[in-house]
Amino acid sequence: MDLRRFLENAGSVARTQTILRAGFSDREIRNAAASGEVCRLRHGVLALPGAPSDLVAAVLGNGLLTCASGATRHGLWLLHQPDQVHLLCRHGGPQNTVVHRESLVPHRTAEPVASITDILIHGLRCLPEVEAAVMVESAVRQGVTTLPYLRQRLPGNRNGAARKVLDLVDGTADSAIEVVARLLFRAAGIYTQTQVDLPGIGFVDFLLEGFLIVEIDGRSHLEPRQVKKDRLRNNASILTGYAVLRYGYADVVYNPEKVVAEVWQVLRGRVIR
């Protein structure tokens, strides 16, 4: 394996000591830097041109991407990109970053990214509960963790808030925005069923109070074939006796009060409390 291929496998950036331990010589490193094949970001750190900025920040900060900054590197859902880089640093840590200290499971990849367990535990302790629930839900859906596993690693009073977030996760959502919508409806006191298979209609995202179907539309719902399918499903739903509302990402994330108000407008008069 040549030096360029090694760096590609390591996320395009690595410390010189890591490269030397992999079997490359000082001469190979000097030649690659002199030719412009790799760049010296500072003494002891090499990168390929155009290396991802978050991975560069991790190596320069002598840490690993974790929490919201490490989530997408493991294919986990993220509701919002973080304003600051989150790093797992055993000692110190650069300014203008969010530093996490504790590590439960060592990372096993060449990239400077923490393990999924560490990313999830840090997210549960650090992020707003809805954003943390989104991240954990995706991990559960992927089968890379379980709720009992995470709960066991959050003992004591200091982790009480993090354990409460786990109660919001049920592993039924197909997307991050469905997690947000589910929590929104349940927080409003609405009886909410998810991914319900209705005869003659198929699976619906939400069935509220047994008669209101709510669908959350992603980008695929703008495609002509999907528009036609949605129209047929809407008609079948109404002809079967259900009410239907449809919302997009911006509605649920940026105007949740309006969504809940419209839902209650449909439910009002048919729900006896």
TrEMBL record:
<feature type="domain" description="AbiEi antitoxin N-terminal">
    <location>
        <begin position="2"/>
        <end position="49"/>
    </location>
</feature>
<dbReference type="Pfam" id="PF04480">
    <property type="entry name" value="DUF559"/>
</dbReference>
<dbReference type="Pfam" id="PF13338">
    <property type="entry name" value="AbiEi_4"/>
</dbReference>
<dbReference type="GO" id="GO:0004519">
    <property type="term" value="F:endonuclease activity"/>
</dbReference>
<protein>
    <submittedName>
        <fullName>Very-short-patch-repair endonuclease</fullName>
    </submittedName>
</protein>
<dbReference type="InterPro" id="IPR025159">
    <property type="entry name" value="AbiEi_N"/>
</dbReference>
<dbReference type="InterPro" id="IPR007569">
    <property type="entry name" value="DUF559"/>
</dbReference>
<keyword id="KW-0378">Hydrolase</keyword>
<feature type="domain" description="DUF559">
    <location>
        <begin position="203"/>
        <end position="267"/>
    </location>
</feature>
<keyword id="KW-0255">Endonuclease</keyword>
<keyword id="KW-0540">Nuclease</keyword>
